[in-house]
Structures are given as C-alpha cells and as structure tokens.
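Reviewer comment 2.1 asked that we show a complete input and output for one of the modelled complexes. We chose the zinc ion case, as it is the one discussed in the main text.
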Amino acid sequence: MDNDIRILIGLTDPNIQFDPKSEQHFNEANRNGTDTVTWNLLLTYVTSCEKCGTPIVNNGTKMVTHKGPRSAFKFQNYRIRKQKFLCKKCGYMSIAHLTDIQPNNHIIDKVKQNAAMELSEDVSQKHIAFDDFKSGKFATSGMSMILIDSVNHRILDVMKDCGAGQLRAYFNQYSPAARATVKTIMVDLFTPYRAMIMELFPNANIVADRFHVVTQAYRELNKVRVSVMKQFGLDSKEYRQLKRFWKLLMKHGTALDLKKLSTAYW
Ligand SMILES: [Zn+2]
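Response of the prediction step:
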C-alpha cells in the first residue's frame, strides 16, 4: 500500500496493507442513510520478543475492528487482521500493534483529534448547536444538518441527510459518557428532535437560538399584519398603508420619527 492510499484511508502505520485474504479492499453498507465504509486490512511485521529479545514466530491472526474518523459524509471502520506472535524461547505471546493507536487504547488517534469526536475531551464542545439547511440534490431528503461549536462558532461537522434516524446514528458515535458532558444544545425553536436530544444528551439544556426567536417573531407579526390588512379590503386606505409601510411595524418604537409619520405617511 503506498502512502497516498494510507492518507486516503486515514492511517499512517507503515505496516498496514490491504488484507490479501479479503476479496475486496473495502465493504460499503448503508445505515440510516449514512454510508459506512469498512476497510479490510492486514497488519503484520517482523519483530522480536518484548521480554527476551528473541526473534518471534507468527502465531495466527486476530480480527479487530476499530472505528475510524468520519470522512466525506461517511463513517469509516477498519477491520484489521492483526498478526499474533509467539516467542518460542520464553513463551510470550503478543499481537501486532497499530501505530495509529496508543497502547492500551482502542481509539484511533486521528479519531481523537477529530474535533467532532472530541466532545468528552474538549471543554468548548460542551456547548453545541445544530440546524438544518436546504442542500438540494446534495442530500436525498434535500435537507442537511450543520453541527457547530456554539462557543467559538466553528463548524464541527455537516451531516448529509438530516432526520431523526440519521441524527441518532450520528450522535450514537459518541459514547454515553461523552454525551453526558454536553451542557447546552442550541437548536431551532420548533425542532422535531427535542425528545431525542433529551434522551441522547441527558444533562444538556436545550437553548433556543436568538436568531430563530427573532425570525419567529418577525414571521408571526407579519401574519397578523396581513390578516388585519385583508379585513379592511383591497380598496381601503388602511390596506394600502399596511401594505406599503410594513417596515414601520418592524421598527422599534423609539426608532420611529413621529413628526415624519404624521406628515409624510398618513
Ligand atoms: Zn521471549
């Protein structure tokens, strides 16, 4: 495997290669609308015994699966057939070590570095925000979801499709312990995901985004204006005024020029 491919799959270990016993380099599956790519890999190398320094022999392999970083809207898993070793001199047994993982840890370093995966470690990500947006043909549903760090306003991730199922699958990537550290989640006022958020983030307060509060008020006020306007009828002076001077209703009372109002408008 050359370095370009290693970079593409997100691993740096020079001893990793595609598993020759596997028919395909990777398998693709779709879970709740999000694609998962599982790379079929083999990790083997020649080494000597950690205990006595004697060259050791191969002793079969063990299949281990690690969760990889998300890339290009896909989940990534590494299914690695790891070489097992046996020291014929002292009997010590060991298994090939992937350099992308710290000893005694099961999480790929890159996953830990990935901002969106660091909910438990990074203090700033105790406050997150998400919002859906129209994304056209990009997503099958036409709607995607953006995940933001609400303290520094950095984009953490973009979910191609949004829906309760997709969101659940996405947030289930984080451990329950990591999710429990999230303190606030800023969302749309009328999010249909409220119950799910409370379930997935048991210690988080759901916060209504200021922008959404203002937008909602604006929309409602406009609805009232239009309905009042219609009551007066098309030919009335009130209808024309409510239609033409709609901006005045949106202004703060103190921002209105009352002298101008009495002469120019009415
Ligand atoms: Zn040994």
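Confidence is low (pLDDT under 50) at residues 115-124. We note this here for comparison with the apo prediction described in Section 3.2.
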